[in-house]
TrEMBL record:
<dbReference type="InterPro" id="IPR029063">
    <property type="entry name" value="SAM-dependent_MTases_sf"/>
</dbReference>
<feature type="region of interest" description="Disordered">
    <location>
        <begin position="144"/>
        <end position="165"/>
    </location>
</feature>
<dbReference type="Pfam" id="PF13649">
    <property type="entry name" value="Methyltransf_25"/>
</dbReference>
<feature type="region of interest" description="Disordered">
    <location>
        <begin position="188"/>
        <end position="220"/>
    </location>
</feature>
<keyword id="KW-0808">Transferase</keyword>
<protein>
    <submittedName>
        <fullName>Methyltransferase domain-containing protein</fullName>
    </submittedName>
</protein>
<feature type="domain" description="Methyltransferase">
    <location>
        <begin position="45"/>
        <end position="136"/>
    </location>
</feature>
<dbReference type="InterPro" id="IPR041698">
    <property type="entry name" value="Methyltransf_25"/>
</dbReference>
<dbReference type="GO" id="GO:0032259">
    <property type="term" value="P:methylation"/>
</dbReference>
<keyword id="KW-0949">S-adenosyl-L-methionine</keyword>
<dbReference type="GO" id="GO:0008168">
    <property type="term" value="F:methyltransferase activity"/>
</dbReference>
<keyword id="KW-0489">Methyltransferase</keyword>
Length: 220
């Protein structure tokens, strides 16, 4: 077992065979596409953006996107892809540990897609929630608890994340104070993918989207 620290993620991305042709770049996660479809484009943060598929897709929809990731290698690939997709002017990339980062800005949409840091998963989600502007949205797509293994590409042949990198819908929504958050989506989802994001086979996910009520501050 290992920590999901910067060393781990930097090695993960250095060893990943990343497609260089834009036509072979994996599409954005369909849950992100579905959940943001009816939102009015504004500012967005993708925490743990990896090689940028979702950030670039959002930029293509008119959002002003910040992608933050702990891996410089992932961000360099994301930047190349944003140029290839001709959305560079609407995306900026920040190398930071989002579990310690203290951004001065708030965003209309804060999303995270399969990011799992070295810190507890729920703590990470609640930290991101603080960065949502009043009236804005929090979107979490994560690995669902209960179907886990030893880690991506682990020797046991599974590609399931370990338990500590997973969450349940109830675990997330029960931590969102209803006086601050209106939960719009809280769903278990299953899909099959051919891979491309470092994930392949059947994915068991949680999808939570919530709106920060207007007039609430960022204590949660
Ligand atoms: C499984 S990948 C998912 C990447 C991308 N969101 C996707 O869905 O393809 C997890 C990402 O989270 C990033 N990450 C992990 N811990 C982080 C942290 N503490 N701060 C910022 N990024 C982090 C990793 O570098 C990696 O790019």
């Amino acid at each position: 077992m290992h920590d999901f620290d910067q060393t781990y993620w930097e090695r993960h991305w250095r060893e990943s065979p990343l497609p260089t042709e834009p036509s072979r770049v994996p599409p954005a996660n369909p849950y992100v596409v579905d959940e943001t479809r009816d939102l009015t484009p504004g500012t967005a943060l993708d925490a743990g953006c990896g090689v940028g598929a979702e950030a670039i897709w959002l930029a293509g929809q008119g959002w002003e996107v910040t992608g933050v990731d702990i891996s410089a290698t992932a961000l360099a690939a994301a930047d190349d892809r944003a140029r290839a997709a001709a959305v560079s002017e609407r995306v900026s990339w920040i190398e930071a540990d989002a579990s310690a980062w203290e951004p001065s800005q708030r965003w209309d949409l804060v999303m995270t897609n399969y990011a799992h840091p070295a810190t507890p998963q729920l703590e990470f989600y609640l930290r991101l929630a603080q960065w949502v502007a009043p009236g804005g949205s929090l979107l979490i797509v994560g690995h669902r608890s209960g179907d886990h293994g030893h880690g991506h590409g682990s020797p046991d042949g599974t590609d399931h994340p370990p338990h500590e990198a997973t969450a349940t819908v109830e675990g997330i929504t029960s931590r969102l104070d209803p006086s601050i958050w209106q939960v719009e989506t809280a769903a278990d989802r299953t899909r099959t993918t051919g891979g491309g994001h470092g994930h392949s086979g059947t994915l068991h996910d949680v999808v939570v989207r919530a709106t920060r009520r207007v007039g609430t501050d960022d204590h949660q």
